[in-house]
Structures are given as C-alpha cells and as structure tokens.
Design brief:
This protein is mainly alpha-helical. It contains ten helices and no strands. The longest helix has 41 residues, at 12-52. The protein is globular.
Length: 270
C-alpha cells in the first residue's frame, strides 16, 4: 500500500485537464442520481395508481402479489436504484477527491478506468446490502408485516427499527465509519492502493464504511414506506447532512435521540 503523497507544481495543461474532467465526473454523478430518482418516481406513481384502482404503464416495475423469482429481481432492482439515488450525492465528495488525486498522480495518464473501478467497488457493496434488504422485504411481505404498498403494518416492527437505528447512532462502529466517510482525503491517505485493482479494493472498503455508517437509516425505509418519495428524500438528506456538513456528527446524535424516543413511544403504544 502506497500512501498518497501531496502533489505540488502541477503543470498548467494537467491542471486544465483536471478541471474539465472534474466537471465531466460531477455531471455524470448528477445524471446518474437524477435517472435513479426518475425510476423511483415511476414506481411511486404506479403504486399510487394501483391504490386508486387505475392502470399505469409502469406497473411492471414493482413487485406485486406473492413473491417469486421475478418479483425478487424487481425488488432487488428497486432497492439498488434507491441506494444509488440516496447514496451517490453523499459519496460525491469522496468520488471527486479520488478522481482528483488519481489525476494528479498519473499526470496525463488515463484515470477513467481507475475511477470506474472505484465506483464499481462502492456499488458492489451496496448491491450486497440491496440483496439483503430485498430478502428482508420478501420475508416481511410473506409474513404480512409489510403490505403490497411496501409499508410496515406493524407498530412493533416500526418501534424496534427506530429504537435500533437510534441506539446505533451512538455506537462506536457508527462513528468510526462516519469519520471515514466525512474525510475523503483522510480515507485516501490511509487506504491508498495503486492500479485499477487497488481502486476496486478502495471502492469496496469505502462502500463498507458507508454501509456501516448508514444501514440503520436505510432500515427505516420500512417504517415510512419503501416507496414513499418524501421519506426517501428525508433519509437521503439525513445521510448527506451527517457526512458533509461540519456539524454532521452532532446532528447524527440528535437524530439518534429522536429515533430512540419515537421507537420507545411506538413500542409502549403497541
């Protein structure tokens, strides 16, 4: 493992390439995020149409009825796209920093392959999370705990998830993972590896820290509705605040207190 070395005296031509490529990378991340939200909006629109008893041309995008292999595949696709929509904005500082460091180290060499390897590694970890979330949704749906509208029908489940997520906000593992996500350059200084394979490993490791930081918040999707766009946006905003804003770690603890109180209230009420 080679640590990242500070780079000074970058030639003007290389600096210009870095700026233009940074704009391309940022535009690509924005496009990926917007397309993911569009996909979720189509599913949400289909759910609303089904609830109203009318048809929708996008009904086939969502799993309905008893789950089989096809419904599981649709559910996995839904969760994976949802993770992209929610996590790419908060991962953007890390992705842009990785691209900038790679470009400065390679000079005129191509950085596209290494950047894609890093992004692939990151998404592979969230793919594994999405597979687990899909399996959990399938199990809860078969047990009639989550409805066809992908909303929990159990106040006990809601309370347990809120309480667990709230307690985890104070766990040492949460804060270790959050610190890795909040300091892109710090992560690269300690985790740097050369080559495309190294970039893939770094992406996997960063994805692991990201899941370790956010899995509790993602589990709350079952509480507010897996396809409730407002709830998804609120959780995505909470993740972004935790990772990006200077007082994010404090906000994470405040949110933890709110979740614990809400979970305890639901359990007592149940």
């Amino acid at each position: 493992m080679n640590p990242v070395q500070p780079t000074t005296g970058i030639p003007a031509a290389v600096a210009a390439i870095m700026r233009s490529e940074r704009l391309v990378v940022a535009a690509g991340l924005i496009a990926l995020t917007l397309l993911s939200w569009l996909y979720l909006a189509l599913i949400a629109q289909s759910m609303n149409a089904m609830e109203a008893g009318v048809g929708s041309p996008y009904m086939w995008l969502m799993p309905m009825g008893r789950w089989g292999a096809w419904e599981f595949a649709l559910g996995f696709a839904m969760w994976m796209v949802m993770m992209v929509a929610m996590m790419v904005p908060s991962a953007a500082p890390m992705l842009l920093t990785f691209h900038a460091v790679t470009r400065s180290r390679l000079g005129r060499g191509s950085t596209a392959l290494r950047f894609m390897a890093f992004l692939l590694g990151y998404l592979l970890v969230w793919s594994a999370f999405s597979m687990a979330a899909t399996a959990a949704q399938c199990w809860l749906h078969e047990g009639a705990v989550v409805t066809d509208m992908m909303i929990s029908s159990s106040r006990i489940l809601d309370g347990v998830l809120l309480l667990a997520a709230g307690i985890y906000q104070f766990a040492p593992a949460k804060h270790r993972c959050l610190s890795k996500c909040r300091t892109p350059m710090g992560f690269l200084l300690t985790e740097w590896r050369e080559g495309s394979r190294g970039a893939l490993i770094m992406g996997v490791r960063h994805g692991g820290f990201c899941v370790g930081c956010c899995w509790g918040l993602m589990a709350l999707l079952f509480v507010g509705g897996v396809m409730n766009l407002l709830w998804i946006a609120l959780l995505a905003a909470a993740v972004l605040v935790e990772k990006v804003l200077p007082f994010g770690a404090t906000i994470a603890k405040v949110a933890g207190l709110v979740m614990c109180a809400s979970g305890a209230w639901l359990l007592l009420a149940a």
